[in-house]
Structure prediction request, 578 residues.
Amino acid sequence: MQEAFARFKATKENNRDTVSKEDRFSIRDWFWFYPANIFEFFKKAAPLSFILLFGIFGVFISIFLRSDTLANFMSSQKSDIFVEGSVGAISSLNPIFTTQNPVDSDLQALVFEKFISISNKGEPIEGIAIEWFVSSDGKTYDFTISNNHTWQDGEPLTMEDILYTFETAKQLSSKYNYDTIGSSMLDVEIKKISDDKIRFVLSETNSTFFEAVSVYIVPKHRLEDVSLQELAFDSFSKYPLGSGPYEVYRSEPNVVYLQASDYFWITLKIETFIYRLYSDYDSLEAAFRNGTLDAMGGVNTPKMLYIEEYSRFVAHTITLDSRLRMIFFNTRKEKLESAEVRRALNYLMNKEELLDETNIGGELSYGPIAESSWAYSSEEVERYEYNPQKAEEILKNLGYTFNQNTRYYETEDKKVLSFSLSYYDNDYNNILANTIKELYQEEGLVLNLDPLSYTQLTQEIVATRDFELLMYEVETTIDPDQYNLWHSLKSNYPDLNLSGYSYERVDILLEDARRKTDQDERKGDYELFQRYLTQDSPAIFLYHPNYTYVVREDVKISDISEIAYPYQRFQDISYWSK
Prediction:
């Protein structure tokens, strides 16, 4: 009896264990054997299950085929498609409005043709105008244009387009205060002599006039019905119509697609040019490492050091003497009125260590004119080499002594010498600004950083001149003329005398140098100009940046070693091949 009871109990426990195991198997083991179970599910749910499966598969295929990654990869493999990457954003592709945005300049160079071009030595080169004559008094310029240029819609480029470009630019500047290519020509009279001849009559001699007319021409028939007030906002700024090698057929915030113009004077070997834009150097690097770019360009920064890892790319590096990175002192501010305090800040700036610490490529600058220019004078320029001893002596005379305990310059009532540095907020500028702050801090100076958006910088700082120190990069002309940067009449927006610098002798020298045509006489004026300006120290002249253009080794491009501006790398793009 006991034996039977034991067998009954054991059987009951075994059954309970079996049921428990089966419960666990229904959840865990279903996933363990998921391939067979899924197949069984799809088999029982057919044909709806297979329709769903192929639908999902089709969506993913469609997304992949339309993705930028695939498009870029396929583009980079085709010999007639060229993909270039750059950091930045489009402002306006209408070349009537002046720009210091390198993205705008690149795309305008691909789409438009210039009236004349300027060599890296400042000499005029044929463009739409093929001949010119200058009167003996230097006040009258006659140009003969070629009638063999055609807009990308098939319409001929005529004298009417040239007149429209210059006159419209002048009106936009005089009536609406826009910064245009006509801003420097307000007192110039423009006359049509014939269908192929145009005359410019100046009120006084201007040795920089050839650069003033080195501008892109726009089509009258496309823009004449657009009011001047609306011209800056017209779709032309996004979808321009030019007479250059490429026309825009698709434009988005992060990419512009261009195709070779059917009406350009030569057949291009590269049919499609894809210009891709990235918000920062990290995104540009990712695209480059993915192999989707044929080329990329930019100023030398630590963010571009990775290009040395790729042997199948060739890096072309040049120093941009046409660009100058400066820290402007606002001489309107009481704290910066004295030239002595400005000199002290110059002596405290260790420029060599700045470039070393940031790994930014460039050539140090000590004055407003590049050392490569015929107008540069090493004898007259006051070179502010790093010299903390001189700075301490100057500051002591101004009432600031170096406190050995706090390690800062202070007044008798313990007020620390401090300034605010405003600048455009991006990776490149943040590296510079933070390093400058650290270098000044080591010397006993407090620098408060004021990073700003593009809108804030242009509308709240540059337009109102409301800053103490402003880190800014200006683009100068090939000619050594510095009238727009330092003449007292150019102190207000939209002109570029950002420091508000004013000295009558400098004004006279800048005016006289413009009126003269003899280079030796001009050089004498510029020598004195450099002496007075650097002694007054309205800015810290930091460096001329290096520009690097990286291209696949199998892409044949023209020599860019002699260009003055980055966009000039495209001047012979008709002969590029891949």
Residues 23-66 form one domain.
